[in-house]
């Protein structure tokens, strides 16, 4: 029996920042979920319940389009025969509700064991801190301990089992290389991480830090994605690099992208010994689709005209094959 999260007695504390009930619901089966106990020494990694593969989508720099890519990546998996979910782990600035058109969806329901039931949109299951806030504009003004406890609850108290366990769960990480990234990397068995960057040098420098962080935690870096790679003029169709970078033989501040040899994130990936997964162009339609809760994969599927969805699908196929998932 499921019940609304909002009808529960919400008791907030440092141990239970999401206010989840700590006893089974009436008619519920079994004990309520428990969080992993803190142990001395190094944290032990464990798989997420009812998830076959978990992959992290990360960017050490904010504003590079990571969440937009994560959602379209997850939707690409879903459209190609994989049972997929996305977990928004950005406690302070969750984006997934907006990207999936679920900003006004209300709070999630609870299972009989008081596990959060993911919300579904466009055939994709999702969970986010944004679903648990009283309004879209409500701030989360918490210190580290509350944030970490909330993260633990999002990781371990969501029911991904219905209608069947997931083949892949995409974790949309917040920008940076801080507590959330370290906690996930040290406690969750990840199949790998995808690093997102723009061609700009300032973003690439932080992307290098992201790669180093995952390598220190012995997590496979599946590859780098270069977002907002070029702008294609809708009138003359000339390609222009909006974001200047000085890395590689093709560097320039503006103008046509003609030339030879890799540049930007592709060149940086080669320097780091990381696979380059592909480019996504800077296109106003991608931004507009995201803002209206119709990610590019869904919007172009509905229109029947594919312009940008192919970029996401090719990246998703490479990632799926790298972690051993069949691609239909």
What's the architecture in CATH terms? 3-Layer(aba) Sandwich
User: Can you tell me the number of structural domains?
Assistant: 1
Q: Judging from the principal axes of the Cα atoms, what is the shape? A: globular
- Beta-strand fraction estimate: 15-25%
N-to-C CA distance: 35 Å
The CATH class is identified as Alpha Beta
Strand tally is: 11
Low-confidence stretches: 247-259
Strand/helix succession: EEHEHEEEHEHEHEEHEHHH
Stated plainly, the CATH topology is called: Rossmann fold
Helix and strand composition category: alpha/beta
Helix content: 25-40%
Which whole number gives the mean pLDDT?
87
Main beta sheet, described?
9 strands, mixed
Number of helices: 9
Biased composition (Low complexity): 245-264
Protein name: ATP-binding protein
GO cellular component, one term: mitochondrion
GO molecular function: 4 iron, 4 sulfur cluster binding; ATP binding; ATP-dependent FeS chaperone activity; metal ion binding
